[in-house]
Amino acid sequence: MRRLIVNADDFGQSPGINAGIARAHEQGIVSSASLMVRWPAAPAAADYARTHPSLGVGLHLDLCEWTCVDGRWSPLYEVVSLDDVEMIGAELSRQLERFRELVGRDPTHVDSHQHVHQEPLILAPVLGAAKTLGVPVRGHDARVRYDGRFYGHGRHALPCHQQISRPALTSMILSLPEGTTEWGCHPAVGLDVESVYAVEREMELRVLCDPAIRAAVNDAGIQLISFRDVGP
Fold first, then answer.
1. What's the pLDDT tens digit per position in 173-200?
2. How far apart are CA 47 and CA 63, in angstroms?
């Protein structure tokens, strides 16, 4: 059996991102999302999640964001020092508690903004919290394979829009391996958030909602699921 989780990151970061994720869930193949609880649009995202239980929602740990200009990366913001494991753990706990306040339950999974949880100092508390919750962490769970190829940037944030085209996504569908796979994505309506990844969000949305993509998933016999359905 081939099972697929199409997870939209950055839920709650802006109204446009919320709208894109909602559309991609209702009209496309998005089955899951990761909530950024610190942003003003997070309560609206949580409201949507509560009234649309078919969308699984996990925590998108938000510790920082970086941008790239002329090949050089620099921080847009940093919530806590990324060198202080106690501060990281405390902020993770705060964001988990805020998630519960907003959504009314625990997250279905944990990942992070710009994959910062892959850093060893951050990964340790994230894995600890996820173990307590009994939920997967992106890229660190034997039950779910992560595939991040549906992304419109290459090295140093250079555009690679062919990677978020209908042919590219169709190829990923046809070659999906057995077992459970997660694809990350970033759909949005409009450009209402400062981000190195901007115009690509609307491009992703069009492809994710393309009827030909949903038909390809159905024809391939792929089961769309959320992290709730992963099982032990």
1. 999 999 999 999 999 999 899 888 999 9
2. 23
- Kindly list the domain boundaries of the chain, sorted by start residue: 2-229
Is 59:125 a contact under the CB 8 Å cutoff?
no
Residue 191's nearest CA partner among 200, 179, 178, 182 is 200
Tens-place pLDDT, residues 55-83: 999 999 999 999 887 778 888 999 999 99
The CATH architecture to which 2-229 belongs is: Alpha-Beta Barrel (3.20)
Report the relative pairing of strands 179-185 and 2-11 from DSSP bridges.
parallel
Distance CA 210, CA 168 (A): 13
Return phi, psi of residue 109, to 5°. Answer: -165, 170
CA-CA distance, 85 to 88, in Å (whole number)? Answer: 5
- Tokens representing residue 220 in the block: 């391939």
**Token pair in block for residue 79:** 């919530």
- What is the per-residue burial (b if ≥16 Cβ within 10 Å, else e) of 17-54? bbbbbbbbbeebbbbbbbbbbbbebbebbbebbeeeee
